[in-house]
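seq/struct pair 1
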Amino acid sequence: MWKNNINDSGSISNATHESVSRDMVKANKVRGHSFSIEMPSRNSINNLSINGGSTIEGDLGTNIRFEIIEGIMLQISGENGVFRLDLREGESDTLLRSLKKR
């Protein structure tokens, strides 16, 4: 299922983009919204706490890009990492409409 270990390169998820997408879609059918975080360096992770609740804090860096992939995933990318959040049908349209209003 999810590979959430921090490996030697500091990556929280060592799965490929395609397998992350597949796993996120599967998880979304069972639960709410699934997400993944990839950080190529441990230096970009400011806080990782898992005890009773979980907190992950880090720095995606500058030059942030927002993308909606195949209408089912929001991807926020920076030079220090990538955050992905799966979307349900129609949520990408709602998200785009709300961003256009601003």
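seq/struct pair 2
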Amino acid sequence: MALVIAPVGLGRRGGRRPARAIFGPRDHSRLSPLPGPHPGATIDLDAILKKIPALDTSNVAVGLDGPLGVVSGHTGEHRLAVTNLGVNPITIDTNGRVTAHVLRPATGRLVGVSTEAQTAPLVRFDVLPQGTTLIPLWVGTASVDPSLGFAVPPGVWHAQAELSIGGQRFLTPPLPFEVIDRR
């Protein structure tokens, strides 16, 4: 397959032009030299999450810093309270925040994610023994479950974040929060 590089979407007057107008009447589902997923193919995100161990809550406690409400289909900002119950300090590596995904409370299945672009600088948060540190948290409610549509609907759901401690990844326990209507 040949790689075609063209300014897709830019017309003579700065307006948008469909790919058909630029490339002619052919299948435009693959305008990339890289193979994409086959129609109907899915990625089992739950299987990926199951490979990440749960956080040892006998040494580290996590919780939301107060009630959290996120507008359906959006990403909300909050804080994750991380308490070190151990005797040694811990360091949590982030990109300046941790991002939580949304789980269905009854089954624990992944139903929502954040689709916000994020930068990836290394920002470390130290948690001293018996101390608590607040870490910025994003919770995204864009749906990955086709039965829910494009957004996680209003209701009580669970947020779960991934923490990087000492070079290892861990999942927090599910934390209840509320998805609210846009109105």
